[in-house]
């Protein structure tokens, strides 16, 4: 089968031919129908050799949707031919947080060598994908696979982040979304679907701001030093009750810190290398809570797919073949993808 692999640190990913994997005990083989490209893949491919955490070659892709092709011995609960979305942040499945569905927080996964598909384990940018357990499959129940693929991360991660701030996003409140890319354009829709907050989107590209407006942002502004002043003007001097930073660079975190309201939340989702100083004298208003959410829980994914089925969120996608995936990554790197790039193997 064809797969898109990162093979050598510092080199571009390559389309290669590898054997179709066989499902072992408890595993499920998925025929991939759609797989999203995430900016995190670019971050991974930017890490230096001495700190590279995954075995190479690595088949990329942590947003996968497909049909069940074969079940390993003892795997039950899904049927061959069923259309499913893959839940990516695999946990041990046995501890308390996993029992709650919050496998993204499993404290044992790393120690047990359990790694997400495309982020350590072979990923979804291939014709077939091995999933370690039926537990990590959510039925599409009629949802379009191309729509659904980005929801497994670009939808799930903002949903999880926003869910933490819901008590503050009351009528009259404001949420700021920094970076209207794959995650950000879904964040805008999720905020509109889940909260009465006014949504202000910030980006550095005019096409991304157009997309933000098209998917429901009340205001879409160029991000920069003056952005916090605009946010304060639009909020009667108060600032935003929630700021979601989907870039996470030093410059955007400075915007987040200057735009957040007293008592508000800053969610640092982007892994752009910046950090936020928490503590008196660190520059944040009093009583601000800051967090760095990671992906989402299994129930979060069920919820996001449900919102999409009801038409409350939809992925804006540009599709590519497996052979075109390296080019799609180049375009993502250049900021030329609006919404999410999705590969159809
Ligand atoms: P993307 O490339 O699709 O979108 C990024 C957007 O940010 C683009 O629209 C870009 O124009 C905009 N941008 C860049 N610099 C900016 C600036 N200075 N100010 C405002 N906007 C700016 O990326 P994505 O796939 O949506 O991922 C977003 C970030 O989230 C990445 O850092 C990714 O690694 C990270 N991520 C984190 C998690 C998590 O669990 N925490 C999960 C998935 C992705
Ligand atoms: Zn991702």
Summarize the amount of helix as a percent range: 25-40%
Number of strands: 16
CATH class of the largest domain: Alpha Beta
CATH topology of the largest domain: Quinone Oxidoreductase, Chain A, domain 1
Overall pLDDT: 98
As a percent range, the share of strand residues is 15-25%
User: Which architecture of the largest domain per CATH?
Assistant: Alpha-Beta Complex
CATH superfamily membership of the largest domain: Medium-chain alcohol dehydrogenases, catalytic domain
| Structure annotation, total helices | 9
The whole-angstrom Rg is 20 Å
Mass-distribution shape: globular
Structural class by SSE content: alpha/beta
How many domains in all?
2
What is the subunit organization of this protein? single chain
User: What is the rounded distance between the termini?
Assistant: 10 Å
Major pleated sheet: 7 strands, mixed
Bound molecules: nicotinamide-adenine-dinucleotide, zinc ion
Q: What string, H for helix and E for strand, traces the elements in order?
A: EEEHEEEHEEHEHEHEHEHEEHEHE
Q: What ranges have pLDDT less than 50 throughout 5 or more consecutive residues?
A: none
Write the layout of secondary structure elements.
Layout: E1 2-6, E2 14-17, E3 28-37, H1 39-44, E4 58-59, E5 63-71, E6 83-86, H2 96-99, E7 128-131, E8 137-139, H3 145-165, E9 174-178, H4 182-194, E10 198-203, H5 206-214, E11 219-222, H6 227-234, E12 240-245, H7 250-259, E13 260-268, E14 289-291, H8 298-309, E15 317-320, H9 325-333, E16 340-343
Parallel strand pairs: 9-10, 9-12, 10-11, 12-13, 13-14, 15-16
Antiparallel strand pairs: 1-2, 1-4, 3-5, 3-7, 3-16, 5-6, 6-8
Helix pairs in contact: 3-4, 3-8, 6-7
Bound molecules: nicotinamide-adenine-dinucleotide and zinc ion.
Nicotinamide-adenine-dinucleotide binds next to helix 1, helix 3, helix 4, strand 10 and helix 7.
């Amino acid at each position: 089968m064809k797969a898109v692999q990162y093979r050598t640190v510092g080199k571009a990913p390559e389309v290669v031919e590898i054997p179709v994997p066989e499902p072992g005990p408890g595993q499920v083989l998925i025929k991939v129908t759609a797989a999203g490209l995430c900016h995190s893949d670019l971050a991974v491919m930017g890490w230096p050799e001495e700190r590279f955490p995954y075995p190479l070659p690595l088949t990329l892709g942590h947003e996968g949707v497909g049909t069940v092709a074969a079940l390993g011995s003892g795997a039950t609960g899904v049927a061959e031919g069923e259309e499913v979305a893959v839940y990516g942040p695999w946990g041990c499945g046995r501890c308390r947080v996993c029992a709650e569905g919050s496998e993204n927080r499993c404290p044992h996964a790393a120690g047990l060598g359990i790694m997400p598909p495309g982020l350590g384990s072979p990923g979804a940018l291939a014709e077939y994908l091995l999933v370690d357990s039926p537990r990590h499959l959510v039925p599409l129940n009629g949802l379009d696979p191309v729509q659904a693929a980005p929801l497994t991360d670009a939808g799930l991660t903002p949903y999880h982040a926003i869910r933490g701030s819901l008590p503050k996003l009351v009528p009259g409140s404001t949420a700021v979304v920094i970076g209207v890319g794959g995650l950000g354009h879904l964040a805008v829709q999720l905020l509109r679907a889940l909260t009465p907050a006014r949504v202000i989107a910030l980006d550095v590209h005019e096409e991304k701001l157009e997309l933000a407006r098209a998917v429901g942002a009340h205001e879409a502004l160029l991000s920069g030093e003056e952005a916090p002043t605009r946010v304060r003007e639009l909020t009667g001097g108060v600032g935003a009750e929630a700021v979601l930073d989907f870039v996470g660079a030093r410059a955007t975190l400075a915007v987040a810190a200057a735009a957040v309201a007293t008592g508000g939340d800053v969610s640092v989702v982007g892994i752009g290398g910046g950090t936020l100083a928490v503590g008196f004298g660190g520059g944040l208003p009093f009583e601000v809570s800051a967090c760095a959410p990671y992906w989402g829980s299994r129930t979060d994914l069920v919820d996001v797919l449900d919102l999409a089925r009801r038409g409350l969120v939809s992925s804006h996608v540009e599709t590519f073949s497996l052979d075109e995936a390296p080019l799609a990554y180049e375009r993502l790197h250049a900021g030329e993808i609006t919404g999410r790039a999705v590969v159809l193997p």
